[in-house]
Design brief:
Order of helices and strands: HHEEHHHHHH
Number of strands: 2
CATH topology: Vanadium-containing Chloroperoxidase, domain 1
Strand content: under 5%
Mean pLDDT: 85
Length: 245
């Protein structure tokens, strides 16, 4: 029976810990994807049956002056900030971010990460448009809308695409960062931006709250699926004897 010395343990322990962290990350990503997909299916079922109508309308009314759906609550600067924040989830802004990030990755010859970003964003857009066509939900009444909006309401494209793009960018930044604080900052910033974009859509009256929640769920699930695909591809290319970093 083989015997292991303390020297062997000290030498192999760092590699074992790195492998455990990698597998833990993949397991966490799979769990997030599964839970997000289940949450979306639950919300979609409730929306299809009209079960969310009452609470959706109550949330919109709570964000308006009593009896005046056109007048948002809060100071004027908050209205302007909401419009600025919601633009971060627009197709134009996200496309510019993707092109800029892809350019940086191309300069670093990180073609795999660049492809992940492009495929993730493109796939997210296709899923968003497909779901909008499938459900065809009407947006809140025009009296509630503080900005213009097109297409169907469910799920929120801004919430979904911002989750996909920002979470992917955050994951890539965390991968390049060496310090844990920088990793946490990158991921925390990605989640915060996604949440703010979605909340701004509700506040501005262009989406029901259930639209935004569903958009977050689909966006998080798709981002994790893309990350898992990239993880599996990296592991396959590295081979069994050279675990991916």
């Amino acid at each position: 029976m083989p015997r292991f010395s303390a020297l062997d343990l000290r030498r192999d322990l760092p590699a074992l810990l790195r492998a455990a962290r990698r597998e833990l990350g993949a397991t966490a990503a799979l769990l997030v994807a599964a839970l997000s997909a289940m949450a979306f299916l639950t919300i979609a079922d409730e929306v299809a049956e009209g079960e969310t109508r009452v609470i959706d309308l109550a949330i919109l009314d709570a964000l308006r002056q009593p009896g005046r759906p056109r007048d948002l609550i809060g100071p004027d600067w908050l209205h302007v900030a909401a419009v600025d924040i919601t633009s971060l989830g627009s197709l134009a802004v996200l496309t510019l971010l993707i092109l800029l990030a892809f350019g940086v990755l191309a300069c670093l010859r990180r073609w795999g990460e660049g492809l992940l970003l492009v495929v993730g964003a493109g796939g997210g857009l296709a899923i968003s448009q497909g779901l909008k066509l499938l459900f065809g939900r009407e947006r809140p009444d025009v009296d509630y809308r503080a900005v213009e909006a097109v297409n169907a309401s469910f799920p929120s494209g801004h919430a979904m695409l911002s989750a996909v793009v920002f979470l992917t960018l955050g994951a890539l930044a965390a991968r390049f960062a060496e310090r844990k604080r920088l990793k946490a900052l990158a991921l925390g910033a990605a989640v915060t931006l996604s949440l703010l974009v979605g909340l701004s859509r509700i506040y501005l009256g262009v989406h029901w709250a259930s639209d935004v929640l569903a958009g977050w769920c689909v966006g998080a699930a798709w981002a994790m699926v893309c990350w898992l695909a990239a993880f599996a591809w990296t592991r396959w290319r590295a081979g069994p004897g050279n675990p991916a970093r």
